[in-house]
Design goal:
123 residues, alpha/beta, Rossmann fold
């Protein structure tokens, strides 16, 4: 499991709301709670930065490695805008994710999509 602490905004949606550079960051209470819950149930967990990208098939195949070399744990599509809207609207925002493998490259799927794929969330 991955819990995003911050997100590099490589998407157009985040730029729609905030025009200048910023560092979208998760609510610490949600991150802290997720870490403790994962430890309690014995779930391996990684906490750190992710990249939010709206590119499905990146023509720069080496970009993923460059991000990884700088400590980015995953590439996903929503964390930056979730954190940005949370900050703008003064609400708590977090982004748990799980690793998914596709064609030999690591990908992640955010938790809410995983729940949607399995049916309605019960939590």
């Amino acid at each position: 499991m991955i819990v995003a602490l911050s997100a590099v905004p490589q998407d157009g949606t985040t730029n729609t709301y905030v025009k200048e550079p910023h560092a979208p960051t998760a609510d610490w209470g949600l991150v802290h709670g997720a870490v403790h819950q994962a430890k309690e149930i014995g779930q391996p967990i990684h906490v750190g930065p992710v990249v939010s990208s709206d590119v499905f098939y990146n023509p720069d195949a080496e970009q993923y490695q460059r991000w990884s070399d700088r400590g980015v744990l995953a590439v996903e599509m929503e964390a930056a805008i979730l954190f940005t809207l949370g900050a703008l609207r003064k609400v708590h925002a977090g982004c748990p994710a799980h690793r998914q493998r596709h064609r030999g490259r690591g990908r992640v799927q955010t938790d809410h999509r995983r729940r949607d794929a399995r049916g309605p969330s019960t939590g």
